[in-house]
Amino acid sequence: MPLEEVYNKVNETIRKLVPSNIKISSVEFEGPVVVIYTKSLSEFADNSDMVRSLAQALRRRVEVRPDPSILLDIEESDKVIRKLIPKEAEITDIFYVNDTGEVLIESKTPGLAIGKHGATLNAIKKKIGWAPTVVRTPPIPSKTIQDIRRLLRSMGDERKKFLKKVGSRISRSVSHDSDWVRVTYLGGFREVGRSCALLSTNNTKVLIDVGLNVSSEANFSPFLNAPEIMPLEGIDAVVITHAHLDHSGLLPVLYKYGYDGPVYCTPPTRDLMSLLQLDYLKVAAADAKKAPYHSTHIRDAISSTIPLKYGETTDIAPDVRLTLHNAGHILGSATAHFHIGDGLHNIAFSGDIKFEKTLLFNPAVNKFPRIETLIVESTYGGRRDVQPSRNKAVSFLIEEIRHTLDQGGNVLIPVFAVGRSQEVMMVLEKQMRGGNIPLVPIYLDGMISEATAIHTAYPEYLNTNLRRRIFHQSENPFLYEAFKQVESGERRTEIKENQEPSIVLATAGMLNGGPVLEYFKQWAPDSKNGIIFVGYQAEGTLGRKVQKGWEEIPMGYGPAAQTIKVAMRVTTVDGFSGHSDRQQLLTYVHRMEPRPERVLIGHGDETKSLDLASTIYKRYGIETRVPYNLETYRFR
In this structure, are 336 and 412 located in the same domain? Predict the structure, then answer.
């Protein structure tokens, strides 16, 4: 069916279901959404079931937005909002979302901004036309989020044109003469790093993750030049499961070489992957290495992102629907579930998962309306990959911290900025409040503070207990008084040379760069101090050498070369991984509803992937496969 006919059919359905007294200005396809523009917003609001009925009839997401003609100028709207909302509400930001006709009002006291029974918001809406939403001001301001908002605000008409182009592509007519589904594995199979796969039908191409491998020059990039993926302009959509560089690090490369389509991910993933990609460019520049893309390409990716909440089912192509579900790995991490065709096939890409409730997140979702094929990670899928429980890990960590502090030493914990840092912060906050650790300063150095700020902006993505503390008990553990941000090199020097005991969380997690090296050089020769590894140390990294017990560590090159003597206490605490261990992976598959017909194993060393696949087949009788990179499997 030609696009014009599709559009006319949608219009006809809407006219039939919407009462004649409600005036519709226009109907547009904007991204995955059918948007109805109207001057009769109040009439739509009075009939709450109407939009639901329209969505069911059209089998598409439907949104009702104000006709642009009734929207007050942004500058004037700002004045109205600040006049109607009392100063005591403490507005910190006003952000207009041109995509939706919404205005987000950040306030330190949302109740005062909303007004009794929403009276203030209703008054604002009548005067400015924009649909106001009040959100609590993040307790820690995030420069990343502010920059992204500023970028999106500056785009205006450009973003609208982009969404209409995407909407037209999603709504195009397709062929059903020979329906089939296949996946081509482009990276991250029988290995860890550079995760990437291409989901194809006879009508559509969807790329899932575009990661890099920072530890391997030979296998740095996925096979983005494979014939299945070229030309890049033929890709309908890109889906990013989470922000870590091995899943999102090469996304900007697509925009450098001609891709101009949408990216789907959760809002926190959009923000965190932008932070990590920009940091990757900084590290490359510092190491005098040529980066594969520029910051302009990161901006292109941001401006092309269509964020989705957990559980929000969305058309991303004429024959593919996407739903993102919590994966429990890091903030905003998702399992991507694809419903293909009219019930033709259902496939889920797990991304990285944690099938256990942690101090930050609820366990990964493993219940779906339908699933025939599961692609699951196997980072810790080997027969010896058994992690201690979180409680045991916490007990061991606290014991080691107390030992060093009691000697008057400093504790250095190398951490990854996203995920592990915040998990350890929650442990320290709880144990220090409970008196199990001496009350000493906990310094946060590197990207940790900005990553934590992004966590505070999305409390709805944290676990049930944390949300309860933040929303109902007005107790935000990220704001604990012992946490101190290190804002300058001068402050870092003061902390290093201070004789008082302290705990320092610093990046990078494998001692392969970042401010953690400054503390390590200063404290390593003193046996009073301790270093505690809470994350994986890759072979060849400085962290791995220290972990193995090297007593002398050569560092630097040329005139700056030096040898660091290591006398500090070296400890490794397992159990804080954001990945599921072998038993959790097996339980995740075993308890999956419904039971998948087949399981494909990726994101793990070859032996671990094969071992996990064999065990799943023997225990549960489910067909398993361990693909090689560049293989293609057809499922229908």
Answer: no
Q: Side-chain half-sphere of 89: how many Cα atoms within 13 Å?
A: 23
CA dist 482 and 505 (Å) reads 12
pLDDT at 367 over 70: yes
User: Which among 547, 421, 412, 439 is positioned nearest to 478, based on CA atoms?
Assistant: 421
Distances (CA, A) of 319 to 203, 314, 315, 516: 7, 11, 8, 48
Q: In this predicted structure, what is the pLDDT of residue 342? A: 87
Instruction: Answer yes or no: is 144 within a domain.
Output: no
| Number of Cα atoms under 13 Å in the Cβ half of residue 98 | 18
Question: How far is Cα 337 from Cα 366, in angstroms, rounded to an integer?
Answer: 10
Alpha-carbon span 373 to 123, nearest angstrom = 50
Which among 198, 283, 180, 191 is positioned nearest to 234, based on CA atoms?
Answer: 198
Q: Do 179 and 256 share a domain, yes or no?
A: yes
Does 120 reside within a domain? yes
Q: What is the residue-averaged pLDDT of the chain?
A: 91
- The total of structural domains in the chain comes to 4
Spatial contact of 191 and 605, defined as CB atoms under 8 Å apart: yes
Q: What integer is the mean pLDDT of 177-201?
A: 93
Name residue, tokens 């442990």: 427
Residue type, 263: V
Evaluated on CA atoms 28, 30, 36, 39, the torsion sign reads: negative
> pLDDT, tens digit, for every residue of 52-110?
889 889 888 888 888 888 889 999 999 999 999 999 999 999 988 877 788 989 998 88
Is the same domain home to 308 and 334?
yes
Q: pLDDT tens for residues 5-64? A: 888 888 889 988 888 888 888 899 999 999 998 888 777 766 768 888 898 898 888 888
The answer to whether residues 362 and 485 belong to one domain is: no
DSSP notation for 365-424:
P-B-S--SEEEEE-TT-STT--PPPHHHHHHHHHHHHHHHHHTT--EEEE--TTTHHHHH
| Domain coverage including residue 108 | 72-137
Residues 434, 307: one domain? Answer: no
Segment 561-619, tens digit of pLDDT: 889 999 999 999 988 888 999 999 999 999 999 999 999 999 999 999 999 999 999 99
DSSP 97: E
